[in-house]
Specification:
Layout lengths: L2 E5 L2 E4 L4 E8 L8 E6 L6 E6 L5 E3 L7 E6 L4 E6 L8 E7 L14 E2 L3 E6 L1
């Protein structure tokens, strides 16, 4: 089994920054593609950013130029650096991993999920 644990959420003012981390563990974990998704109240879960073990990266248009995803394969950890945060970035942020390539970065394609970490951006 694979476990994903997110950390780093919190309350920040608009224009501020936060750094999220997600660490994977479990005997069956491999360096799967891992990504960040978010879900605002009353909304569907949406893709934010994703990265493969080889470093291929994709971002949602809404976060390009503001968010940066990275990973440390040796630590089974993926990060999301979030800058210039806006109130509309407020959501629960989830880490997901896809064990069956090729990855399409759709929520329904992720095989493993963390429990999420809340990010609140005040205006």
């Amino acid at each position: 089994q694979v476990q994903l644990v997110e950390s780093g959420g919190g309350l920040v003012q608009a224009g501020g920054s936060l750094r999220l981390s997600c660490t994977a563990s479990g005997r069956t974990f491999r360096p799967y593609p891992m990504g960040w998704f978010r879900q605002a109240p009353g909304e569907e879960r949406e893709f934010v950013a994703g990265i493969t073990s080889g470093g291929n990266i994709k971002y949602a248009d809404s976060v390009k130029g503001r968010f940066t995803i990275s990973r440390e394969n040796a630590k089974n950890t993926v990060y999301l650096e979030m800058n210039s945060l806006k109130p509309e970035d407020t959501a629960v942020y989830y880490c997901g991993a896809d064990s069956l390539p090729p990855v399409a970065w759709r929520p329904g394609d992720m095989d493993y999920w963390g429990k999420g970490t809340l990010v609140t951006v005040s205006s």
